[in-house]
Design goal:
Helix content is about 45%, strand content about 25%. With about 350 residues, the protein is an alpha+beta fold. The protein folds into two domains: about 270 residues, no CATH class; about 90 residues, no CATH class. Strands 5, 7, 8, 9, 10, 13 and 14 form a seven-stranded mixed β-sheet that branches. Strands 2-3-4 form a three-stranded antiparallel β-sheet, covered by helices on one side.
Length: about 350
């Protein structure tokens, strides 16, 4: 059976790396060139993060989250400290070149929605791109081109909401609903049976184009899951709880999503190993009409696992062991997912088992 991915040519990998570095710098400069403040690095739970602190018009000191410590982020910080902002037009030829050389692009209409949320600060406020668009972005980030399971009509986002303590200032305020309502043709929130706005939006005049906002379940005082949407006031959006979602939100990485027209957006995506394991965890949650999504989950997990067994086996092992250590329900779903992988991609499952027991 042929591999589920191919390596991008070196020219495409180089073009993506250049686009990512410039996009990081442009996004950072856009955020802070009109503010007087300073950068600082903090370590939270063993991981270093960069922030930009400034005094707002009300006199309060606030912080903009820049990103996890990395070569690209440090370079952007140094660039922003000493140079004027570069226009977004700088990114267009870089994005066009990356796609022309082999990087995967999103549909332009999907990317426009992602860009709008990025411009409103959704990703800087802790938002994460998940689902197939994250899979596309992760492929480019890893220097890979997927052979399947990279097409969708939905765009999925997630946020920790009130469930996870993340390294972000608590006073971040953005307006997700306003961003979508002001979009070309507008996005309409889908209403629940009780009359409240749900956690999904559908584009006016395009019934197949839907945006979904997810989070991890929270517990009532009695210990039972609450599965109805949770409204997050500082984001002005409702989030739909999804089991195991926190697994993908606890470790994230910056990436660039682009399209063939040269548009691009800086986004945040789950760490690749955690994305793969999370896809196996949710296979058992897909029932009835969602079985098609379960098949795509297994395909995406298989493609990432096949790559990581070759390139980053320790990261894959650590993510898998983390999932198994979270309790019996997590172990049951994880093993169900691995069984589904065994049925659909026995060679990959066998290689994984052999490596794990070596």
């Amino acid at each position: 059976m042929p591999a589920l991915f191919s390596e991008l040519p070196l020219s495409a990998q180089t073009a993506y790396a250049q686009l990512r570095d410039v996009a990081t710098a442009v996004g950072l400069e856009r955020s802070i060139t009109h503010l007087h403040g300073s950068f600082s690095k903090k370590t939270v739970k063993g991981t270093a993060y960069w922030y930009f602190a400034f005094r707002d018009i009300d006199g309060q000191v606030r912080q903009l989250y820049v990103g996890p410590d990395s070569d690209a982020v440090r370079a952007a910080v140094e660039q922003a400290r000493g140079s004027p902002a570069r226009p977004d037009a700088t990114l267009v030829p870089l994005a066009k070149s990356a796609v022309a050389l082999g990087c995967a692009g999103a549909l332009p209409k999907h990317l426009r929605a992602v860009r709008r949320l990025a411009e409103y600060g959704f990703f800087r406020a802790g938002g994460v791109l998940i689902g197939t668009h994250a899979f596309i972005a992760i492929g480019n980030m890893l220097g890979l081109r997927w052979r399947a399971a990279d097409r969708t009509t939905d765009v999925d986002f997630a946020h920790a909401g009130k469930n996870i303590s993340v390294a972000l200032p608590a006073n971040v305020q953005i307006d997700v609903h306003g961003a979508l309502a002001s979009f070309e043709q507008g996005f309409i929130p889908l209403v629940q049976l009780g009359g409240d706005a749900g956690a999904s939006y559908r584009r006016s005049g395009d019934a197949e184009f839907q945006l979904d906002f997810l989070t991890s379940p929270r517990l009532t005082d009695g210990g039972s899951d609450i599965d109805k949407p949770v409204r997050i006031s500082n984001l002005n959006v409702a989030l739909q709880p999804l089991r195991f979602m926190e697994f993908s939100l606890e470790q994230v990485e910056p990436a660039v999503l682009m399209d063939r027209n040269g548009a691009s957006a800086m986004v945040t995506v789950p760490a690749p190993a955690r994305y793969a394991v999370h896809k196996l965890l949710v296979v058992g949650e897909r029932a009835g009409a969602l079985r098609t999504k379960a098949h795509k989950d297994v395909q995406q997990a298989a493609a990432l696992i096949e790559h990581m067994l070759q390139a980053q086996p320790d990261a894959l092992h650590a993510a898998w062991q983390d999932a198994l250590a979270r309790g019996p329900d997590w172990r049951r779903r994880a093993e169900e997912g691995r069984a589904a992988l065994q049925r659909a991609f026995p060679a990959i499952a066998a290689q994984w088992t052999t490596l794990a027991t070596a």
